[in-house]
Amino acid sequence: MSSNPVPSLDKAYDASRVEDACYTRWEESGAFGADASSTRPPFVIMMPPPNVTGVLHMGHALNNTIQDIVIRHRRMLGHEALWLPGTDHAGIATQAVVEKTIYRETGVTREEMGRDAFLAEIWKWKEKHGNTILQQLRRLGCSCDWSRTKFTLDEDMSHAVRETFVRLWEKGLIYRGARLVNWDCVLQTAVSDDEILHVPRAGKLWDLRYPVQGRDGEFVTVATTRPETMLGDTGVAVHPDDDRYRDLVGQTLVLPLLDREIPVIADESVDPAFGSGAVKVTPGHDPADYDRGARHRLPIINILEGDGTMGEAAGPYRGLSREQAREAVLGDLAAAGLLGEVREIEHNVATSDRSRTAIEPLVSEQWFVRMEELARPAIAAVKTGRLRFKPDRWSSVYLDWLENVRDWCISRQLWWGHRIPVWYDEDGEPVASVDELEVGSPHPRTGKPIVRQDPDVLDTWASSWLWPFATLGWPERTDDLARFYPTHFLSTAREIIYLWVARMVMAGYELLDHLPEKDRCPFDLCYINPTVLDGQGRRMSKSLGNGIDPIEMIDRYGADAVRYSLMVLGREGQDVKLSENRFELGQRFANKIWNASRFVIRNLEGKREAAPGTDLEDEWIRSRLARVTEEVSAALTEYRFHDACQELYRFLWNDYCDWYLEVVKGRLAGEAGEASAARARGTLLEALRTVLALLHPIMPFLTEEIHRFLPGSKGLLMQSAWPTADPAARNLAAEGAFEAIQDVVSAVRNLRSRMSLPPSAVVSILVKTDDATVATALCESEQRIMALAGAKGVQAGPDVEKPAGSASALAAGGTVFVPLEGLIDLDVERARLGKERGRLENLVLQTERKLGNEQFVSRAKPEIVEREREKLGSLKADLERVAGAVADLG
Question: Are strands 814-819 and 763-769 parallel, antiparallel or unpaired?
């Protein structure tokens, strides 16, 4: 092996110095790029495109760390790995941000600017701010193919969107009609379900009394949180089995204030136990009522204008805001003696994520996609196993939505986005076209002049559902599409399983019709990543102010510490509870690896390295290395990221640093001769080089930097081959023998601590064991044990007896004794231990009394009660330790 001098690592790991330079080397090498002409097996991940308005938050950091681990692992396994990045134009979010900015700075509204001028301003904003999050992903270490970066409003993406619209239009799967939608009265547009927050708010529940037609003094009472909507009531519903209203079903009531006659209908959706058992039916302003109204053919009355003011159907309340109408309606009902009980309640209010105002369900003329036909193959994909979810339980969420799917409202009353590719002639006759049609040109069917294009734009999801293949050039039959579709792995959040994941699957089956059906599903596996919560288990949000900025954490702890901490804290299927100090875990691990590597490299400098050694500790560490290679390889292949982190931590921190390095320090110093030292150096280097490669997908900067200082390293670690476990290296006999040594050494160290022996005290070690193999291993490893435990001799065997005044502990299939005579004053130690036992017994009694107090347990904060329980467990463990020491001393 090499005997050339080896440059040394810096004394301390400085992530800020390493990371930028390392990322520059990666990018300049072209290592992130994927080659469509390669013959290597492809592995493809499409990055869920973050909003162009966005900045990196912890959810992004966790999800993109997962993707980067997967793609780096596959790249090292020899795949032609493509991770394609990009951003989403985020129609409503971006328009709202820019509109507010322009108005704040100039006082000009978008309507005053005009559509073209306003869109020009948004494009300027996008060019200036739109790539912030992509730059931040570089700070995280993401190894994307940046040359293929996509934006959902790129021209080729827009072409794919128009092609999709026209195909579905011609197939009869897109139509225009009046349906109930979520309406934002401030932004004056329909919004999708994912743009709605259900915010708990204090409110009131009002009882309203509706007179029964022809029955003086008889009323039906209904309850509502939105009394102004009673102006749009077209019925009152009761349960068909409710005896209280059986004789009223089919009769009519008089709608107060407007004197409109409305029927009493029987509908099984009504809960007779809620309130009075009678509910008002407002089909134009409530989703459940819309369905009830459709079942009973009730008319739909729209009382609202697009800006939220009362419309013509509101009669005398026309022109009032929603809030003004509520006060006026309540006042008039009270004056008429028709306002009943009023109750204070807390309820969830559907609120626009952008304008932060209450959403109004509103019947509006919109564009829709018929979903039932598109859903069938997407359902079959999961049921046949073509598409898998991990954890598997999320497949039921996916299937539940698809099996009860409703038509999708794809139009938005915005200016920023993909404009609906439909044009009209002077008679309003529509035509859809992939190509732009100019005003004044003849209508393709009627021949009359085109007079306008539909002013609406498409829902953002109506472009991002094409992401897995439009990014590869579809509808053209490109080399990228042929090579990299279908993709293999998708990591995303649970909130968009139906909003995005299910729709991508539908789009793949519907639009990739040139492929066999088995190749149309856009990805093989959908990994639902954990949700990042704060330390109290709450979702991170701007309103709570409990978010943690990943970039600040990278600046403070380093990118690798952030990545490792996020992965090791999150078990599969469990959310991540996170506070800022949790990143210290990753930082300590990074420093441990750096310091150990620095020690190894310093011991290699100018020295000869032999082949890996055959001493017991050499065979043990090589066996452990083979095991960790198997375990980490399996964990990453199966997407068990926490398990991979845990295995690497155990090997590096415990096996390699705390044991192997300590054992071989004497050999490295030449105590056993140069040949032994060379064998130790060879084993150190082999183990370090291998484990750095295993760790690289998780902690890429640190491992890449250390790798380039190792003798014999060529090229980038990220481009090296993934390690394979050598079955011949597994040596269970060596592992068993060395574990016996570890047991004894650990037992002695614990006894030294328990008996407060000073570090300078040199002890004798006696091990009573009936296991001949263990006894032989311990005797043959006397020098190792003496060095590790601060001992002057080791005896082991079945004939060993406990000396008087000895501390003892169970270990290595027997009992370890450490004679204390001459090391401490036994009488003083007995007195000290007796005093300590008394103190601990009192503390245990006090804590037990506190936890036995029902008032404390029921009234104290749960975290305080839990701390007391943890304290009690710790006290009992300390008491048991002290009691054992007392027993040892008689």
Answer: antiparallel
